[in-house]
Design a protein that fits this description.
7 strands; Rossmann fold; 368 residues; alpha/beta
Length: 368
């Protein structure tokens, strides 16, 4: 199958075992129950996506008729693909969630629907920007011992803004995220995977990381109120921080071209962010990815170059941290953080929807 979500094929240098690495761990062709679940999920989500596509196309100046024709073309192509998978999944070779995501994006591109969530992302970014200064003041007012935990909870609360998962897409369709409400409603600790004490101990050790690569997820509160505060905190501890964002659109993931001006807007609201951006100690990079998941065997040369000297990787969001890369090992410390938002994923691990995952592995530790 043609891979539509990559522009480069460079291996991420921090993978511990690149020869055996596989981004998508589960072959759905060999798991009929899981395949049925995911095909049904993709079918049910696609109308929500097309509703956003109509709005985006009309905003670009297409007539309602032209927009509907483009959406109908994408709908026919994608549903035909899903039916072909259902009838004979083994005909497609090894089949994982990443492959289905990539084919969906290829079909959207061919129908002229490349950046379906452009308007939704822009609105979510503005809503989050309006809240950023207050969120940073709240974080700065906390004692050193509790600040890292609050930042992690902010990442998890922001990660609920996910228009690629049916349950959360229905929650926020046409409505802004209530970030503080989400923060208050997070499931209590201990979480289903809860390495937060070890992470806090590492941050408090007096040995700051040299360089951190943060692979960010969604636009809006996810990146602005979750990951940017983490980047700011790490930079304040003396760490060089690189924010890696998609090279092209995929669902409501933030792209590199969106992240660059977004960081400049954030800097206008906070002196600490302005300082680390001006000094180059916080900077964005295109990941080479164009999918809601990420294959670290195929990234951009820019991200590969930035990995030199890095001793921390953060994979954020269900797609990057669990649906892909859950078992990936690295030559440096790694954090995998996400909210669980699909029933099939929850069932696979024995979790529940809206459970919280914070997995921290130090370099060389056994894979748990």
């Amino acid at each position: 199958m043609e891979q539509a979500c990559r522009t480069d094929e460079v291996v991420f240098p921090l993978l511990a075992n690149p020869a055996t690495y596989r981004a998508g761990e589960w072959d759905l062709a060999r798991e009929p129950g899981q395949l049925d679940y995911w095909l049904d999920l993709f079918r049910r989500h696609f109308p929500l996506l097309l509703a956003e596509a109509l709005r985006e196309l009309e905003d670009r100046g297409l007539s309602r008729r032209q927009a509907r024709e483009s959406c109908a073309h994408a709908e026919r192509e994608f549903y035909a693909y899903l039916e072909a998978l259902a009838e004979n999944p083994e005909a497609f070779g090894r089949l994982d969630i990443l492959a289905i995501n990539e084919r969906r994006q290829q079909i959207l591109d061919s129908a002229g629907l490349g950046d379906v969530y452009r308007l939704a992302k822009s609105a979510a970014n503005q809503t989050a920007l309006d809240m950023l200064a207050g969120v940073l003041r709240e974080i700065d007012g906390l004692e050193d011992l509790v600040r890292p935990g609050r930042i992690v909870r902010g990442i998890l609360a922001g990660n609920i803004y996910d228009l690629g998962a049916t349950k959360t897409a229905e929650l926020f369709h046409g409505r802004p995220v209530d970030f503080h409400g989400a923060l208050a409603k997070l499931k209590p600790r201990p979480w289903v995977v809860d390495d937060l004490p070890f992470w806090c101990e590492r941050l408090g050790s007096g040995r700051p990381y040299r360089k951190a690569i943060l692979l960010v997820d969604n636009a809006g509160p996810d990146v602005v109120l979750g990951m940017i505060p983490l980047a700011r905190d790490l930079a304040g501890r003396g760490t060089e921080v690189v924010l890696a964002a998609n090279s092209g659109p995929a669902l409501n993931d933030i792209t590199y071209d969106e992240l660059v001006p977004l960081l400049e807007q954030c800097a206008l609201l906070d002196e600490a962010l302005a300082a680390v951006l001006a000094q180059g100690r916080l900077r964005p990079v295109p990941s080479g990815n164009r999918c809601a998941l990420i294959d670290l065997a195929r990234i951009s040369p820019e991200l590969a170059a930035e990995a030199e000297g890095a001793d921390l990787v953060v994979l954020e969001g269900m797609g990057r941290a669990i649906e892909s890369n859950w078992s990936a090992r690295f030559t440096c410390d790694v954090v995998k953080v996400a909210m669980v938002k699909t029933g099939g994923l929850a069932e696979r691990f024995g979790w529940q929807v809206f459970d919280l995952v914070f997995r921290y592995e130090s370099a060389g530790m056994p894979n748990s």
